[in-house]
Amino acid sequence: MKKFLQIASSRHTWAWPYVLFLVLFVVLPLLLIVVYAFTTPGGDFTLHNFVQFFTTSEAVNTFIYSIAIAILTTVICLLLGYPAAYIMATAELKTPVVMSMLFILPMWINFLLRTLATVELFNMFSIPLGEGALLYGMCYDFLPFMIYPIYNTLQKMDHSLIEAAYDLGANRREVFTKVILPLSKSGIYSGVVMVFMPTVSTFAISELLTRNKITLFGSLIQRAFGEGGLQMWNYGAALSLVLLLIIGLSSFFGNNDEQEAQSVL
């Protein structure tokens, strides 16, 4: 009994369920994607799946367009989210609480329900669904992921540095560009990564808000696995691996930039 209590009280013991979860639902699926991407339906090694992607103009154009949409969405979210985060971080006590609830409440609703509600909103005002609706839906769904990292960074900022800048004769513009903005770089980088990664891989928003008129890279992957049958799973895995590499690179550079910003500060 005593030995059992010692084992149960060990931190390593309680870590095993999380290790098992990661192996079953993270490592194993990723390994399956890699295996499928480099094999034929018969199980033979091949690079044909990647060659098919790079030689298919529709797939390459869709990939480039998806990256462009993700970048544009990220920029819009940054332009909208930074002022909101700044107001929340510098306003009186009740203002950030109210604003936080306003941004959090929509997140309590299912993702697909929010998107369908957006479709009905556009239909109500007879606004055609297309690229504009797509960008609106993207920003609506992912804006909170930009606001809160920036807000957390600004909230923890040392305000004595701002007071020192004013004492040294800096005006508001100089204080913002030379003190506040550099201090919030880590939050900006985190928000950019958190918005860019889900945006570049989504497919439901584009299918609903454009009536399948605009195809994003996530839709190609979904069709390969859902409509192409088992014969297309290998190609779908190759597309997924390409997307994973892009997301991994964006996360890697984002982490490097964040660490560089923190080291400078």
Would you mind describing this structure in some detail?
The structure is a single chain. By secondary structure, the protein is mainly α. The chain is 80% helix and 0% strand. It is globular, with a radius of gyration of 23 Å. Mean pLDDT is 85; it is low at 260-265.
Helix-residue proportion:
over 70%
Task: Report Rg.
Answer: 23 Å
Structural class: mainly alpha
Q: What are the low-pLDDT stretches, counting only 5+ consecutive residues below 50?
A: 260-265
Number of strands: 0
End-to-end Cα distance: 52 Å
SSE order and pairing:
Layout: H1 2-9, H2 11-37, H3 48-55, H4 57-90, H5 94-104, H6 111-124, H7 131-155, H8 159-167, H9 172-183, H10 185-201, H11 204-209, H12 217-226, H13 233-264
Helix pairs in contact: 2-13, 3-13, 4-5, 4-7, 4-10, 7-10, 8-9, 10-13, 12-13
In short:
The chain is mainly α and 265 residues long.
Features:
single chain, 265 residues, mainly alpha, 80% helix, 0% strand
